[in-house]
Amino acid sequence: GAGVSQSPSNKVTEKGKDVELRCDPISGHTALYWYRQSLGQGLEFLIYFQGNSAPDKSGLPSDRFSAERTGGSVSTLTIQRTQQEDSAVYLCASSFRGQGNTGELFFGEGSRLTVL
Amino acid sequence: SQQGEEDPQALSIQEGENATMNCSYKTSINNLQWYRQNSGRGLVHLILIRSNEREKHSGRLRVTLDTSKKSSSLLITASRAADTASYFCAISYDMRFGAGTRLTVKP
Asked: Which of B14, B17, B24 is nearest to B98 (CA)?
């Protein structure tokens, strides 16, 4: 597709279950970001991938959160043993980043996670 | 890491009026970007201003950048009800976002 694709768009799970959220970035984009947004709040940075470099994981809130990006393209955000406070919209964005400059971010529509 | 901080947190105006929101940051930048978010879903890029630029226009949008004050402003002229949204700034490289400005334009 032409844009950033995220799946699932909505996920309802029970407390303690693991969930996986997927992001398909725009082809050729070297940078990929994950953010979390709780209701009525701003965007909380989670993790950033740039090419083959080690990801910036400084925003992950706990060791229950992890993410990987395979082949420099698709990314999966995994939340283990989900808690109710994990309920939020998880947003993915990609960008072409060159020479130390970050260009325009293209966002997916997000995955809304509800933990019961 | 660094992020922009938007001000005010909320702004309510009448249709046809101008809306101004501000972004402050603390370190040097390569560029600063403004985004809009409707209905809590994906953000849409509005405009990018580079560190060597002072002003940029796009349609009804005007962005200024003052690197000496480490601040930027976004002006929306002749606002419309459809401009109702949250507006965020982000600083390159890290692309951290602040809490945003919630703009309400009343018809």
From this structure: B24
